[in-house]
Each structure stands twice: as structure tokens, then as C-alpha cells.
């Protein structure tokens, strides 16, 4: 109760409690967190950009920023519009969180198909039946990655099937463990709902404040910018190109301390995006998102499906890389999904606190007007 009374008092008195210093500190911490994500090496702050460990670090930084923003902004609300716009964006990011969680479930199914292939191929003597079992699992994986390549994958299966015509004529999608349950990743979010359009709507009208960088409006702008960046990055990592939305985001004003590391991160991810699109257009692949571990999964699957059983060295190299990618997914996907859910719940709680403060402020203003009249 005493905390709530202090919040009400601070809303009535703009100079209460040194809120400007807290807002300055929030923006400094935001800058530091973005710099830690950027790092000095490959742009991952110790981790490779767009890997699962890097995404963990990104969401950790976001969760810390949400908590700090909630604590510093709730007693410093003097203008409704920046906070209301932030709250509108949070509704959209909740939808993105749900879509990403569904995509993680689909990636786990890809992971399972890859594990079947590794189990079949990871042995000294490779028998024909083991090779066929692995190829079925990998073909199922690739059909979920790029359903438009069905004919090409079947052709590869037929050409390498050791004369067994029944393998070529049987539907790949209905053969192999779990194949009938594996959906295309492009269908995860539904045929009409687009995570990319959600991100585009979030970034629309994201205008910098007119006041100084220590104002509450500037803090809301910084938090909104980080919110949009996180949603954009998650969509880029987990969804095919047709569902990702804009390939770049608007640049914040350079006088804001956190703008430079944020823009550098955006540029690096946009570069990866362009490289992937160029590679996809060259092989007519719809492919998955930019998540490094899943890209490696796809690369190894394509290599193994097009390999001959007698190419033992080449197969061995692909199997080693595929096994490493499986370990990365096994270690990284479950905690990331829990983290995405935590982001969802933290945003819900942040919304509740800010809405409560806005309502109290508006009630106080209405009471003051009634008393004055």
C-alpha cells in the first residue's frame, strides 16, 4: 500500500523522487545491454549471432529492461500517448510470442527426424536399410522445411534408392516416424495471420520524442524500440521469408546513446537476411528462418539426401555436423521456449502496472478538475 501511495504522489508531483535520474540510468543500462549483445567479435557478445545461446542472451536483456522500465516509468507517467503506444505494441508482441512458441514445437519435430537419421547413420558399417531409414527421415524433414520442393526431393530419393521402386512410389510424407504429424513451418502461424505484418504494425509510427533524452517519453521510446527489435529478431530467426515482414527497421536518432548498438545489430541481422534470401533464390528453396542451428540441420539433410551410400567420408562429415546441430537444439530449444513464455507473462504484468498507473493518474486529474470547478 505504501508503494502505491508513493506512486500516486509521484504522479501528482513531477519532481517527486528524482525520477529523471532513474530514467537516465534506464537508458544507460539499455545501451550497455545492447553493447553486450553486439560484442567485439562476430556481433554476438561471445555467441554467434542468431544462435540459440545468443537469443537467450537477447531475451535476458529484454526481461531486465522490461522490469527496469516498469519500475522507473510507473511513477513518472506525465503524458499518456507514449505509454499508450507502448501498450498497444505489447499486445502485438504477445501474439508474436505465441507464434514463436508454436514454431519451437515444430522445430522439435525437425530435431526428432534429424536424430533418427543420426542414429541410423552413426555406425562403422552402413547397411542399406539404415541408409534408407535415414533418408526417409531427412526427406520428411526437408518436406516440412520447403513443401514446394516435394518433386525434387522425391526425385533424389528415387535416384538413390538402390533400385527399390516401392520407396519412390510411396508418399514420403506418410512414411517414417512421425512424418504424418510434421507440418510445414510456414503454416505454424496459420494461413492468414502473419508475424511479419505484426512486426510491421509494431514499427509503424514509432517516432522519437521531442524532449530531451532523460524524459519519460524518451524512455518509453527506447523501450518501444527494443520491443520492436526483439519481435523482429525472433520472427527473422523462426519464420520463412514470406512471413518475416520488413527486412530492416527504422533507425532511431543518433543522439540517443543506445541507437548506435541497436542499429549495428539491425544491420548485422539484415545482412544475414539478405544472404539467406540470395541463397534461397539460387536453389528455389522457401527454407526456414535465420536460426543458425536449424540452417545447419537443413544443410546436412540436403547433403545426406543427395549422397550415395558409398561416399563414406562425405556422409561421416555430414553426420558429425548433424549430430552437433541436434545437440545444440536439444540443449537450446526447451529453455528458449520457457524464456519466450516468461517474456509473455512479464509483458502482461508490465501492462497491468502501467495501465493501473494511467488509470490512477486520470482519476486524480478528473478529481482535481472537479474540485477546482
From TrEMBL:
Pfam families: ROH1-like (PF05633). Transmembrane segments: none annotated. Its main location: membrane. It is found in: Membrane. Keywords: Membrane, Transmembrane, Transmembrane helix. It is a single-pass membrane protein. The lineage of its organism: Eukaryota, Viridiplantae, Streptophyta, Embryophyta, Tracheophyta. Residues 1-22 are annotated as: Disordered. Belongs to the ROH1 family. This is Uncharacterized protein. GO terms for cellular component: membrane.
Amino acid at each position: 500500500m505504501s508503494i502505491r501511495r508513493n506512486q500516486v504522489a509521484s504522479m501528482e508531483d513531477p519532481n517527486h523522487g528524482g525520477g529523471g535520474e532513474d530514467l537516465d540510468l534506464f537508458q544507460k543500462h539499455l545501451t550497455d545491454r545492447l553493447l553486450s549483445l553486439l560484442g567485439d567479435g562476430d556481433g554476438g557478445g561471445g555467441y554467434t549471432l542468431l544462435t540459440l545461446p545468443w537469443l537467450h542472451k537477447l531475451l535476458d536483456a529484454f526481461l531486465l529492461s522490461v522490469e527496469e522500465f516498469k519500475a522507473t516509468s510507473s511513477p513518472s507517467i506525465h503524458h499518456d500517448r507514449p505509454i499508450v503506444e507502448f501498450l498497444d505494441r505489447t499486445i502485438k508482441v504477445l501474439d508474436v510470442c505465441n507464434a514463436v512458441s508454436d514454431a519451437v514445437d515444430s522445430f522439435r519435430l525437425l530435431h526428432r527426424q534429424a536424430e533418427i537419421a543420426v542414429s541410423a547413420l552413426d555406425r562403422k558399417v552402413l547397411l542399406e536399410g539404415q541408409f534408407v531409414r535415414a533418408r526417409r527421415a531427412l526427406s520428411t524433414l526437408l518436406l516440412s522445411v520447403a513443401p514446394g520442393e516435394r518433386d525434387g526431393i522425391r526425385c533424389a530419393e528415387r535416384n538413390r534408392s538402390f533400385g527399390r521402386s516401392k520407396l519412390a512410389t510411396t508418399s514420403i510424407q506418410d512414411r517414417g516416424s512421425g512424418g504424418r504429424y510434421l507440418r510445414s513451418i510456414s503454416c505454424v502461424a496459420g494461413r492468414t495471420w502473419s508475424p511479419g505484418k505484426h512486426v510491421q504494425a509494431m514499427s509503424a509510427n514509432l517516432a522519437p520524442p521531442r524532449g530531451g533524452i532523460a524524459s519519460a517519453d524518451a524512455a518509453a521510446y527506447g523501450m518501444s524500440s527494443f520491443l520492436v527489435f526483439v519481435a523482429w529478431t525472433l520472427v527473422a530467426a523462426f519464420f520463412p521469408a514470406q512471413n518475416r515482414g520488413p527486412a530492416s527497421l527504422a533507425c532511431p536518432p543518433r543522439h540517443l546513446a543506445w541507437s548506435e548498438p541497436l542499429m549495428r545489430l539491425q544491420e548485422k541481422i539484415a545482412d544475414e537476411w539478405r544472404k539467406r534470401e540470395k541463397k534461397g533464390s539460387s536453389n528455389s528453396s522457401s527454407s526456414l528462418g535465420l536460426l543458425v542451428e536449424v540452417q545447419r540441420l537443413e544443410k546436412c539433410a540436403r547433403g545426406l539426401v543427395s549422397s550415395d551410400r558409398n561416399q563414406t567420408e562425405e556422409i561421416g562429415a555430414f553426420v558429425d555436423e548433424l549430430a552437433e546441430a541436434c545437440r545444440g537444439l536439444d540443449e537450446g530449444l526447451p529453455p528458449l521456449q520457457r524464456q519466450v513464455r516468461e517474456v509473455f507473462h512479464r509483458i502482461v504484468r508490465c501492462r497491468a502496472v502501467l495501465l493501473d498507473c494511467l488509470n490512477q493518474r486520470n482519476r486524480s486529474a478528473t478529481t482535481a478538475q472537479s474540485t477546482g470547478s
